[in-house]
User: Which sequence fits this backbone?
């Protein structure tokens, strides 16, 4: 059996992102989304999600960009004096690796974000992280401790097999889009797979068998998404996407994904992509249905 979770990251980032995610679920094939507790459009997302009860909603844990959710006194090694989180992944990793960010602060921030979402009436289906920071051992340990404490048992495994990464970008490379940075990121994440699996077992965390979308971030138009579905392996798979309707807030957010998000929205709404699911006998699920 082939089971597929189609998850949209960045729910709550802007109203346009929220609109794209709701549309991709209501009128398309999106099954899941992960919500940013510190997103500028968080409250808009909470209101919109009430209209789509079948959408699985997890927590997109944020350690990079925006304001901390936890009280500043609890996260002083993580956030600056104004409560701002590190502005980039390199800045975060350098400080973390140098021992300047305490694991306790990461735990406090994760706990605050999850509890904020739960307090809004959301039954959190799973956890993932903005920029895949939980691929870092120190972050994963902190996440594991908080997940166990709060009774959350499902988590994204952000490791895409190198063969899948290469195959998924083959056609795009032939069209002149190299996706070099994404392939490098996929390879880097893959390198910690054994450790990630061991930590997941330690904390009783479960993930889909396969993960796709990292190497094609921002490029999953209708044709690439259909190719992914046509070649899905047996078992459970998560495909990561970033659908949105581009708006002014997104343009000012600093996100490198802009019109690419509309391309991925088109893919999730495409009738041909939906037909491929039926043709291949793929069952759509959320993380709540993951065995």
Assistant:
């Amino acid at each position: 059996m082939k089971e597929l979770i189609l998850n949209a990251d960045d729910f709550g980032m802007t109203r346009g992102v929220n609109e794209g995610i709701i549309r991709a679920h209501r009128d398309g094939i999106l099954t899941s989304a992960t919500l940013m507790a510190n997103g500028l459009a968080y409250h808009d997302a909470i209101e919109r999600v009430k209209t789509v009860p079948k959408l699985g909603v997890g927590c997109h844990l944020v350690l990079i960009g925006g304001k901390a959710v936890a009280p500043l006194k609890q996260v002083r090694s993580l956030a600056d004096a104004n409560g701002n989180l590190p502005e980039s992944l390199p800045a975060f990793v350098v400080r973390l690796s140098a021992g300047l960010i305490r694991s306790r602060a990461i735990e406090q921030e994760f706990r605050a974000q999850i509890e904020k979402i739960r307090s809004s009436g959301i039954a959190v289906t799973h956890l993932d992280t903005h920029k895949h920071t939980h691929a870092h051992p120190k972050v994963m340990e902190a996440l594991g401790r908080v997940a166990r404490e709060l009774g959350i048992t499902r988590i994204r495994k952000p490791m895409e097999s190198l063969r899948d990464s290469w195959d998924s970008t083959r056609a795009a490379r032939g069209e002149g889009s190299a996706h070099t940075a994404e392939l490098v990121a996929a390879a880097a994440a893959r390198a910690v797979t054994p450790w990630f699996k061991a930590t997941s077992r330690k904390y009783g965390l479960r993930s889909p068998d396969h993960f796709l979308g990292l190497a094609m971030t921002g490029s999953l138009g209708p044709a690439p998404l259909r190719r992914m579905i046509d070649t899905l392996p047996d078992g459970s798979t998560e495909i990561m996407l970033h659908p949105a309707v581009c708006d002014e807030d997104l343009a000012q957010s600093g996100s490198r994904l802009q019109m690419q998000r509309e391309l991925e929205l088109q893919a999730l709404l495409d009738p041909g992509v939906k037909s491929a699911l039926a043709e291949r006998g793929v069952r759509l699920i959320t993380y709540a249905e993951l065995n």
The CA atoms of residues 101 and 274 lie 44 Å apart. Confidence is low (pLDDT under 50) at residues 173-178.
